[in-house]
Amino acid sequence: MTDSTREQVVIYLHGFLSSPQSVKAQQTKAFVEKYYPDLIFYIPQLDNHPKPAAKALDELIAQHPNADFGFIGSSMGGYFSSYLLERYGGKAVLINPAVQPYNLLADYLGEHVNPYTKQKFSLDESHTRDLTRFDTKSLASPQNYWVLLQTADETLDYRQAEEKYIGAKLTIEEGGDHSFQGYERFLKDIFQFLLHD
Description:
Blueprint: E1 7-13, H1 23-35, E2 40-42, H2 50-62, E3 67-74, H3 76-88, E4 91-95, H4 101-104, E5 110-113, E6 120-123, H5 125-132, E7 145-150, H6 158-164, E8 169-173, H7 187-195
Parallel strand pairs: 1-2, 1-3, 3-4, 4-7, 7-8
Antiparallel strand pairs: 5-6
């Protein structure tokens, strides 16, 4: 297969306790349907536990052996997007990404209900240990990342991502919140970054 015939695949990865029905996921879906109707685009429902989530993503990517991948990841989805980019190549746009979510999840051990899917699940220390397996200690090609951060993120310290993704394209906005206020403003540029050199 020549480069000109390679598939282009974009995968949107939602965050912890989120779903494909989240506001940003649906904004992205609507944008793709309007402007890139022929693009292969996925918003998978990620398992609440890290190992099956990663396994499902590996299986999804294996369905496209001759593809160039783009990843859009919010929060925990940003963490997994980094793992996938370092493993399979491509480009990624990360929105307020989790850098060390295994430390954060220590505060979330116990029973949960996903507010979108209503699925009940439990987290224990084995899940936080599993999460460390998907950490990307170093970035082979930081220029293939674009990281969108807002300084008033109430869940994550944006400075962790600013430090980790040094050498990447960084957009840091004052204020905002963990959901990244005004995300839809960036959709046109996000897909330009992911799909074009």
